Automatic annotation (TrEMBL):
Cell compartment(s), UniProt: Cell membrane
Catalytic reaction annotation: ATP + protein L-histidine = ADP + protein N-phospho-L-histidine
A single GO molecular function term of this UniProt record: ATP binding
Record-annotated Histidine kinase domain positions: 101-303
Coiled coil: 126-153
Cofactor: Mg(2+); Mn(2+)
Region feature (Disordered): 302-332
SMART domains: HAMP, HATPase_c, HisKA
UniProt name for this protein: Signal transduction histidine-protein kinase/phosphatase MprB
Membrane-topology annotation of the record: Multi-pass membrane protein
C-alpha cells in the first residue's frame, strides 16, 4: 500500500524549525561571549590594577595600595602586594630614623670637639686637630644631605610635644655644659601635626643647632608650642633665644647661603621651611621676647600643602620691608 504525501506537507515547518534552531544557537553564542567577557573582565581588571600599582610603587609612589577583590588568587596577590608595600614603607622609615638618629648622636660630640679644638691654641698639632674635626663635620653633613634626599610620600603624623621633649632631652646635656637656661612651654599635652616624626625632629635639631652654634655660651633659649585648635586649624612652634639676632632673615632662609662657619651645610632653616610648607604653613623670623631671634614655624592642619611656596616667600619679603633688622655677624 502506497501513500502519497504532497511535497508541501513534507516540507511544511522545516524552515521555521531551522530559523528557531539558528536563533537558539545565536542566542547561545551571544550569551557565551557575554559570560566570557564578564569573566575576563573580572580577571583582567584586578590584574591591571595590580600591574599599575606595582608600576607606581616602582616609581616611588609608596602610598599606593590595591583593592583586595576579584577571584581568590587575585585577592591573595593584592593582599601580598599591600603587605609588601607596607613593609617597604616601614623599612624606608626605619632607614631614615637610623640616619636621623646617627646625625643627632654625632652633632653634639662634634660641637664639643670643635669648641675644644678652638681652644687648643696655635701649633701643628692644634691645626691638624681642627682640620680633622672640620673634615668629620663635612662627612656628617654629607650623610645628612643624603638622608634628606630620600622622600617618603606615605601620609604620616606625630605628636609635636613628644618630639620636642625628646629633642630637648637630647640637647639638654650641651645646654647644661654651656650654662644655658632652657624653657619649654605648651609641651605638656598632645599636639598632633601632619609631619613625620623624623622630619619634625630634624627640623627642631636644625633650629636648636643654630642656637648653639651662633649664640655665645650662657645664652638663654625657649621652645613654645601654640595649638590653635579647631578655630585656627594650625600649630605654631616658636624657638627663641637671647642672642644677637639675624641680620638678614631672607638670606638666612635661602638654600646654600649659610656662612655660619665650619659645620654649616647652608640647609638648616631651609629644611625647617620645607617641613612647614609641606603642610601649607610657612616659616618666619623675627625678634623674640628674649631679645634675640625668634623662629616661628607655622604648621597647617588642613593639608593645604598645594599653596605656592614662592608666593609665601614673596609675601614674607613684602612684610619684612621697612623693618629695622639687628646686626649679627653670623647667619643661622
Amino acid at each position: 500500500m502506497e501513500v502519497f504525501v504532497p511535497r508541501g506537507v513534507v516540507t511544511s515547518g522545516v524552515t521555521t524549525s531551522w530559523l528557531v534552531l539558528a536563533g537558539v544557537g545565536l542566542a547561545l553564542i551571544v550569551g557565551a561571549v557575554a559570560t566570557a567577557d564578564r569573566l575576563g573582565t573580572r580577571l583582567v581588571r584586578p590584574a591591571g590594577r595590580l600591574a599599575d600599582a606595582a608600576h607606581d610603587l616602582g616609581h616611588g609612589e609608596l602610598g599606593v595600595r590595591v583593592p583586595e577583590d576579584g577571584p581568590a588568587e587575585l585577592r591573595a596577590a593584592a593582599a601580598a602586594f599591600n603587605s609588601m608595600a607596607d613593609q617597604v614603607v616601614q623599612l624606608l622609615a626605619g632607614e631614615r630614623e637610623l640616619a636621623a638618629d646617627l646625625s643627632h648622636r654625632l652633632r653634639t660630640p662634634l660641637t664639643v670637639l670643635r669648641l675644644n679644638a678652638a681652644s687648643l691654641g696655635e701649633g701643628p698639632a692644634a691645626d691638624q686637630t681642627r682640620a680633622a674635626v672640620a673634615q668629620l663635620e663635612r662627612e656628617v653633613d654629607q650623610i645628612i644631605r643624603t638622608a634628606r634626599q630620600q622622600k617618603t610620600h606615605a601620609p604620616s603624623g606625630c605628636d609635636a610635644s613628644e618630639v620636642i621633649r625628646d629633642r630637648m632631652e637630647f640637647w639638654s646635656a650641651l645646654a647644661e655644659d654651656e650654662n644655658r637656661t632652657v624653657r619649654l612651654a605648651g609641651v605638656d599635652r598632645t599636639v598632633r601635626v601632619p609631619v613625620a616624626r623624623p622630619e619634625l625632629g630634624a627640623a627642631l635639631d636644625a633650629l636648636l643647632g643654630n642656637v648653639f652654634r651662633h649664640t655665645p655660651e650662657g645664652t638663654a633659649l625657649a621652645v613654645d608650642v601654640h595649638d590653635g585648635g579647631d578655630a585656627s586649624n594650625s600649630v605654631i612652634i616658636l624657638v627663641s633665644d637671647a642672642g644677637p639676632g639675624i641680620a638678614d632673615p631672607d638670606a638666612a632662609l635661602r638654600r646654600g647661603h649659610g656662612d655660619g662657619g665650619p659645620g654649616s651645610t647652608g640647609l638648616g632653616l631651609d629644611i625647617v621651611r620645607r617641613v612647614a610648607e609641606s603642610t601649607g604653613g610657612d616659616l618666619r623670623i623675627g625678634r623674640s621676647m628674649l631679645g634675640g631671634t625668634e623662629v616661628r614655624v607655622w604648621l597647617s592642619l588642613n593639608g593645604a600643602g598645594s599653596a605656592d611656596p614662592g608666593q609665601r616667600r614673596r609675601g614674607r619679603k613684602r612684610k619684612s620691608r621697612g623693618r629695622t633688622r639687628p646686626k649679627e655677624p653670623a647667619e643661622h
